[in-house]
Amino acid sequence: METEKQAFFREFNEAFVKGDTDLILSSVTDDITWRMVGTDTIKGIDALREALQGMESSNQFELEIEFMITNEKEAALNGLIHSTNRDGEQRHYSFCDIYRLKEKDGKINEIISYVLEV
């Protein structure tokens, strides 16, 4: 049985594959930092909002969470994301996300993402 925190992080990750930017933005602090190791770092909710608009795509995504570790202040998830474009071409990505929560409101304050195409 999932805990409340595990359900929160599952829903947050599912929001990315569903394109639910409202849920994503409502789950993070205004001073969010998202570091995508090897590529970019996004700082602040306005920069995140802009990046999410750039991620809109006609691709279909499927999320597979392999495991999740959570406590009151942090979480770590790893799994696979499967992407299929209009032409039926598939790509697969392995990911690990590390989250830190802001103690006052329980929102995500920092994300560190490792993503590899497999």
Automatic annotation (TrEMBL):
InterPro entries associated with the record: NTF2-like_dom_sf, SnoaL-like
Gene Ontology MF, one: isomerase activity
Alphabetical list of Pfam families matching this protein: SnoaL_2 (PF12680)
Sequence intervals crossing the membrane: none
Keywords associated with the record: Isomerase
Domain SnoaL-like per the UniProt entry, residue ranges: 10-110
The name this protein goes by in its record: Ketosteroid isomerase-related protein
Source organism per UniProt: Gracilibacillus ureilyticus
